Amino acid sequence: MEGVLLGFGVVLVIVAVGFVAAALLPGKAVAMQAGLGPAVYYVTNPALMFLLLAETDLGAVLGVYAPVALLTALAAGAVYALGSVWVLRRGAPHAAVGAMASSYVNAGNIGLPIALYAVGSSAPVVSVLIAQLLVVAPVYLSIFAWCAPRPAGAEVADAVPLWRTVLRSIGNPVTIATLGGAGLSLSGWKPPEVVWTPIEMLGHASIPLLLMMFGMSMYGQRPFTQRSLLPDLVWASFVKLAIMPVAAWAVARFAFGLQGIELLGVVVMAALPTAQNVFLFSSQFRMPSTLARDVSFLSSVLSLPAVLLAVLLLG
Questions:
Q1: Which of 51, 156, 231, 234 has the fewest CB atoms found within 10 Å of its own CB?
Q2: Residue 187, CB half-sphere, CA atoms under 13 Å: how many?
Q3: Cα 84 from Cα 87, distance rounded (Å)
């Protein structure tokens, strides 16, 4: 319990630093985010992923943790989509965005400190990142490309081919660094210290920078402005913070026989809030991005009680 509180406390303090910085320096906040964004995307976050994968036992992760993460994400997304289409009577764009928002967790910048403090291992985080980067994200991006509304006057022939959309989702700096770190882990070779130490320094800078940027982005926002999406927001948040952790527990416990701290790690990862990447992806495809933004915000607020409940029940 103390580890979870410490992990969330670290996250909240750094987010608060970003929020206060944006409030005190409103004229510079946009410039700071614009400068930090590319640095994190192209340098520090890939370095972190490379570092995590290179230091992870891929046999254990790919054999158990990654399949659990994939099955859990599939179950949560399917449950949301069924409720969205059959009960809320939403179309494909709303159902697709809500499904991704209810099953795509913020493992990169929130999951890592929580896992390290609560579980003492980065294996659950790495498994989720592998599953999301290499499988879940390309699948949802393909769905977005299929059901995204086309601009007025656009021809079908002008649309980006599906294979190119999937390739673009995989061929980004984070995924490439993930594959590079996995290759290094499999080879058993470690670079010399003069190379490895700078990678560690850059990777360790990624999480605080990401959290600070998230805090800056929250300043001045007015969530829940689109009242018509309130049922979707409630349903997606319930699936994300209640159904997904239960699905993770069931899959890990009964399908893979996990117990103790390993089982707790899987459930805690499933109880994390929605990743901000969902908002980014949905915006790029002109999908209902407001839903993704609001689910990310609400799940970020409510994830602490969900994680604490998981620790009380399984810890």
A1: 156
A2: 10
A3: 6
Burial class (CB in 10 A: 0-12, 13-18, 19+), 276: buried
What is the spatial distance between Cα 12 and Cα 21, in angstroms, rounded to a whole number?
Answer: 14
* Crossing angle of helices 289-314 and 230-238, rounded to 10°: 30
**Residue 98 CB partners (closer than 8 Å, separation 6+):** 80, 81, 84, 90, 232, 235, 236, 291, 295
User: What pLDDT, in 10s, does the model give residues 99-120?
Assistant: 999 999 988 767 777 777 667 7
Name the strand (E) or helix (H) holding 157: none
Global pTM?
A: 0.80
Q: Are 291 and 229 spatial neighbours (Cβ–Cβ below 8 Å)?
A: yes
What confidence score (pLDDT) does residue 94 get? 92
In sequence order, what are the beta bridge partners of 105?
Answer: 274
Q: Which tokens is 158 given?
A: 């002008």
Distance CA 33, CA 210 (A): 10
Q: How far is CA 110 from CA 184, 211, 276, 279, in A?
A: 25, 8, 11, 16
Tokens of 15: 């987010």
Cβ pair 302, 134 in contact under 8 A: no
Segments of the chain with pLDDT less than 70: 1-5, 7, 109, 117-118, 149-171, 315
Q: Which amino acid is at 137?
A: A
